[in-house]
Automatic annotation (TrEMBL):
Coiled coil: none annotated. InterPro entries: Glyas_Bleomycin-R_OHBP_Dase, Glyas_Fos-R_dOase_dom, VOC_core, Xdiol_ring_cleave_dOase_1/2. Pfam families: BphC_D1, Glyoxalase. Its EC number is 1.13.11.25. Residues 6-120, 143-269 form the VOC domain. It is an enzyme of class 1 (oxidoreductase). Belongs to the extradiol ring-cleavage dioxygenase family. GO terms for molecular function: 3,4-dihydroxy-9,10-secoandrosta-1,3,5(10)-triene-9,17-dione 4,5-dioxygenase activity; ferrous iron binding. Its cofactor is Fe(2+). The keyword Oxidoreductase applies. This is 3,4-dihydroxy-9,10-secoandrosta-1,3, 5(10)-triene-9,17-dione 4,5-dioxygenase. Keywords: Aromatic hydrocarbons catabolism, Dioxygenase, Iron, Metal-binding, Oxidoreductase.
Length: 298
């Protein structure tokens, strides 16, 4: 199995880089700078970027960037993928320069989600300075946050993520979108890697045209969540879910639309888990309170 340490970055494709810059700076409170190939770096800590926005023909989530410890771990990952008969594409020099890593390769899971694995990020370690005063985001050693990916081929995708990529099961949820008991349940599995974040990845048993259900960014206190809600209103960003607190990771958060068509969860207070003491479980409700997702359909 791969030894994934954290979600290092995400890659987003955009038809309008300027729209992403405005959203990242003025709504999320992240810092932006130009990247090779006309792309955009979105910065939330001392690393040069955590979100890479690349120009393209569509607005969508493109890839999840998983961080490995070092070169031996990277070589082991490539060997593991080869033994599992996974088609692997090695990064071009331009992609390496853009990702700012020593080496990177990518592959797709059985649901078609693109995963990039890399080691040795490069950074100037300049201080994060938010254009709207966000003091910091909760990142290392737990990574950029989490991502929730579509998995219409659910069983095959979960088996691949567990047996090849090495993710562990944190908990399970099942959802119906209507009150019709004949509607098939959609499964969500929340998965962790080699850090304390409750889940760095989740898979949802449904397709998504945007290539992602949502990503999460975490801030150090509730005041920053409230200020972000104010900015959402000021800039006319559509809410996808009201403020609430999840049962599983205890994150207090709200959800909003991104220019990429997927959602972003902005929250505080996520659990840091000691995996030696954890037992996987199934939650039968998504939140302790709040999180009215119907607002996203109004």
């Amino acid at each position: 199995m791969l030894d994934i340490r954290a979600l290092g970055y995400i890659v987003v494709e955009s038809t309008d880089i300027g729209q992403w810059r405005g959203y990242a700076e003025q709504v999320l409170g992240m810092a932006c700078s130009g990247a090779p190939g006309g792309a955009l770096y979105v910065k939330m800590d001392e690393r040069d970027y955590r979100y890479l926005v690349v120009p393209g023909a569509r607005d969508r989530y493109l890839a999840s960037g998983w961080e490995l410890a070092d070169e031996p771990a990277y070589r082991h990952a490539l060997e593991t993928l080869r033994e599992a008969n996974v088609e692997v594409v090695h990064a071009s020099p331009a992609e390496l320069a853009q990702r700012r890593v020593q080496a990177m390769a990518w592959f797709a899971d059985p649901s078609g989600n693109r995963h990039e694995v890399s080691w040795g990020m490069r950074s100037d370690f300049l201080r994060f300075v938010s254009p709207v005063g966000v003091p910091r985001f909760i990142t290392d050693p737990m990574g950029a946050g989490h991502t929730v990916l579509p998995a219409p081929a659910f069983d095959q995708t979960y088996a691949f993520l567990r047996d090849v990529m090495g993710f562990g099961l944190s908990d399970i949820f099942r959802v119906r979108f209507t009150s019709d008991p004949n509607e098939p349940e959609k499964r969500i599995h929340f998965l962790h890697c080699a850090n304390a974040r409750h889940h760095s990845l989740a898979i949802f048993e449904m397709p998504s045209d945007a290539g992602c259900i949502h990503v999460m960014a975490e801030v150090p206190d509730m005041a920053e969540v409230g200020r972000a809600l104010d900015r959402v209103q000021q800039h006319g960003v559509k809410l996808s879910a009201t403020l609430g607190q999840h049962c599983n990771d205890r994150m207090t958060s709200f959800y909003m639309k991104t220019p990429g068509g997927f959602d972003l969860e902005f929250g505080h207070g996520g659990l840091a888990v000691d995996w030696s003491q954890h037992a996987a479980y199934e939650a039968t409700r998504v939140s302790l309170w709040g999180h009215d997702f119907s607002i996203g359909y109004r």
